[in-house]
Amino acid sequence: MMLMKKTVNIGLIGFGTIGSGVVETFNRNLPLIEDKVDAKVVLKKIVDLDIVTDRGVQVDPDLLSTNVDDILEDPDMDIVIELIGGYQPALNFILKAIENGKHVVTANKALLARHWEEIMDAARKTGVRVCFEASVGGGIPLLEPLNDSLAANKIQSIYGIINGTANYILTKMSEEGRDFEEVLKEAQKLGYAEQDPTFDVEGHDSAQKLIILTILGFGVYIKQENFHVEGISMITPQDIQFASKELGCVIKLLAISQLLDGQLEVRVHPTLVPEDHLLAAVNGVFNGVYIVGDVVGPVLMYGPGAGMLPTASAVVSDCMDIVGDSKKPLIYGPQISSVESIKPMTEIESRYYLRITAIDKPGVLHSISGILSNFDISIESVNQEKRDEGQEVPIFMVTHHAKEQNMLNAVEKIESLESVTKNTVFIRLL
After folding, report:
1. Which listed residue, 268, 283, 299, 352, has the most CB atoms within 10 A of its CB?
2. Whether 209 is catalytic
3. Which residue in 132, 136, 133 sits closest to 119, CA to CA?
């Protein structure tokens, strides 16, 4: 006698780009999905404020609703997918779903980064699962492998290129020698950048994703306001050209979380990456996350970091994971953390690249070198373009390892010199 397969009902809140991709994934691969989870999977209801606009996917009109309670208050609904983004009403919807005993799948990195503890505490009390593979890295299998497949390791470091917009801009600037603003406008026309690109190019999107990676890698939740976040808008073709020709490096916006002697460094900023490093080859809108474990060594996870179908792939996979094991404990990251403290940004040490713009006249370089020396910063190399005396000239410097606070103090002094005409750009080397 054949046993009846269990039925799992799924409700989708948010029928935008990613929601449409989820529907398309179910339309395309439902027999495969049901075979792998050994259950009947039903997309029972789709809720959105707009149920009129054609999304380009086949959907039964009877599935569509504008009333979120058709999902949240349905006693037969097993899994709720939240894809509306933002903080509210997404938080209320997720908490109500959890309160009503429903598992949750979300791609909402902003919400998780800000309300992680509240959401997870609620889920533990109710005994439901919260899955969020699509929140970092789009379609890259990243979070589940980090949390589970690498569980036998003490994670030592995580370096991530996790914003496709910033990576596209830096790649184009590098390949074509174009200015930031010009490439940004192109990215906006192509749909790679928002009309207000601040969130992406100033590092905030990467920071939210880094919060999630840090939880899974090190078992520590740290809010964005408690670590350094810096964007790429000050990078010029001059910086990129010097990095390539003189240092053999490319510039990437890196999200970094690494553990050194019990101190955890968490930061987002442009970084000079050696051309022979695996992350240097992560170009365009692609993402890459380089993880080092004490047992496995270095692991690179690479792929499309956004997009309708890649992200939908991760969302549907989370649903399948819940169907396969709905009782799996809600454990993210090591329960006994090796982190003793969070290292202040001012205490980190790095080699630095500096671009100082000054009037070319006798004594300027001597003054700059003296300031750096006074703050215990040793110069590795100096390059200066030839200009007629009295003209503005960029001075390129690379230092040996120095403390961040000393560099900040030195830059402040350098910028106070009468001969220095523009803000100094400094970039840390990986």
Report:
1. 268
2. yes
3. 132
Contact at 8 Å (CB) between 64 and 30? no
Which candidate in 209, 343, 386, 422 is catalytic? Answer: 209
Is the pLDDT confidence value at 401 over 50? Answer: yes
The tens digit of pLDDT for each residue in 71-92 reads: 999 999 999 999 999 999 999 9
Let me know: does 384 contact 396? Beta carbons within 8 Å: yes
Burial class (CB in 10 A: 0-12, 13-18, 19+), 327: exposed
- Round to whole Å and give the CA distance between 256 and 265: 7
- Determine the Cα–Cα distance for residues 346 and 203; give it in Å rounded to an integer: 19
**Multiple choice CATH, 346-429, 3.30.70.1050, 3.30.565.10, 3.40.50.800, 3.30.70.260:** 3.30.70.260
Helix axes 364-374, 404-415, angle to 10 degrees: 150
Indicate the pTM of the whole model: 0.95
Task: Please state which of the four CATH numbers 3.40.50.970, 3.40.50.720, 3.90.1700.10, 3.40.50.300 is assigned to the domain occupying 7-131.
Answer: 3.40.50.720
